[in-house]
């Protein structure tokens, strides 16, 4: 089960991993915390009044298309997007938003879904949310809480029999090492690198540099990068198909960095680090 804050996050974070496991016969569920109602339109070709007017409905249809491409199952947890506050000082968050829900309330739908779907592995964001969007940070908190609560027979008794997932992972997306590898391979192929400016602006104390040191698990999934990109393009309001995400040819990406990376944050099974499989150490079905 992959827990995400908004529709489109599942296609930009861990999508190739999910596509690989689906095609190896694993059932994969995406839990989407919010509908992305307060998101922006980031594709200039979609920046039109009628798109803004129906953004919530459009983003749900985009999610339907993306999940079909990935081959995953998907469930909405039913919360409202918090938006990304901007300004100095930052404005208050909307009262009805996901990030302001009491933790017990926000966790409840995910506990119910875990007990229904019964995953052995759960993936989510780290404590910084991958980046400091309030919904991403709340998604982390809810995922950690649900991982523990779903297996506790004393909690959320209204949601049926407990189920304890065995491993909890944080997705580790971008690091300087990865961007440097992509940049070097792009230049070696004789192409203009979209990463050069990115690297020039990179701070030595960048949080993503620190996150890279926490990687425990690298899942080979280069053969599924094309499916990942197709799923991401399905979120047409959120992604410019001519933008930086798609400028580097897939064969260059596969050669430079053929994995998606994770930190094993919690495990109830024995496993050796480093890993190359999210299911390492899981040998049989578990009955609570």
What is the strand content? 5-15%
Major pleated sheet: 4 strands, mixed
Radius of gyration from the CA trace? Answer: 19 Å
Order of helices and strands: EHHEHHEHEHEHHHEHHE
Q: Which residue ranges are poorly predicted, with pLDDT under 50 across at least 5 consecutive positions? A: none
Overall geometry comes to globular
Task: Provide the spatial order of strands within the biggest beta sheet.
Answer: 4-5-7-6
Total of helices: 11
Mean pLDDT: 94
Number of strands: 7
N/C terminus separation:
18 Å
Helix content: 25-40%
Notes on the structure:
There is one protein chain. Strand 4 (121-124), helix 6 (134-149) and strand 5 (167-172) form a beta-alpha-beta unit. This protein is globular. The protein has 288 residues and is an alpha/beta fold. The protein has a 4-stranded mixed sheet with strand order 4-5-7-6. The chain has a 3-stranded parallel sheet with strand order 1-2-3, covered by helices on one side. Helix 4 (55-70) packs antiparallel against helix 10. The chain has 11 helices and 7 strands.
Q: TL;DR?
A:
The protein is of the alpha/beta class and 288 residues long. The protein has helices spanning 9-12, 15-23, 49-53, 55-70, 103-117, 134-149, 176-188, 196-200, 207-212, 225-234, 250-256, and strands at residues 2-4, 29-34, 73-79, 121-124, 167-172, 217-220, 259-267. Helix 7 (176-188) packs across helix 11.
Write out key terms for the chains shown.
single chain, 288 residues, alpha/beta, 4-stranded mixed β-sheet, 3-stranded parallel β-sheet, 14% strand
């Amino acid at each position: 089960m992959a827990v995400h804050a908004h529709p489109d996050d599942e296609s930009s974070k861990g999508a190739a991993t999910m596509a690989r496991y689906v095609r190896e016969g694993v059932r994969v569920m995406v839990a989407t915390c919010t509908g992305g109602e307060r998101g922006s339109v980031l594709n200039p070709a979609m920046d039109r009044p009628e798109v803004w007017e129906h953004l919530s409905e459009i983003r749900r249809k985009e999610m339907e298309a993306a999940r079909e491409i990935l081959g995953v199952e998907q469930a909405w947890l039913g919360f409202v997007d918090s938006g990304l506050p901007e300004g100095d000082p930052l404005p208050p968050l909307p009262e009805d938003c996901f990030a302001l829900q009491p933790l017990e309330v926000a966790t409840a739908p995910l506990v119910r879904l875990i007990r229904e779907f019964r995953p052995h592995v759960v993936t989510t964001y780290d404590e910084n949310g991958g980046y400091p969007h309030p919904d991403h940070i709340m998604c982390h908190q809810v995922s950690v809480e649900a991982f523990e609560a779903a297996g506790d027979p004393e909690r959320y008794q209204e949601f049926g029999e407990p189920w304890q997932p065995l491993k909890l992972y944080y997705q580790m997306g971008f690091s300087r090492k990865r961007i440097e590898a992509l940049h070097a391979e792009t230049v070696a192929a004789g192409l203009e690198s979209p990463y050069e400016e990115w690297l020039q602006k990179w701070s030595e104390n960048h949080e993503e540099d620190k996150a890279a040191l926490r990687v425990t698990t690298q899942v080979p999934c280069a053969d599924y990068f094309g499916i990942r990109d197709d799923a991401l393009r399905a979120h047409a309001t959120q992604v410019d198909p001519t933008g930086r995400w798609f400028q580097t040819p897939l064969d260059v990406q596969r050669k430079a960095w053929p994995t998606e990376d994770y930190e094993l944050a919690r495990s109830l099974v024995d496993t050796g680090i480093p890993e190359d499989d999210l299911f390492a150490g899981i040998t049989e079905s578990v009955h609570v």
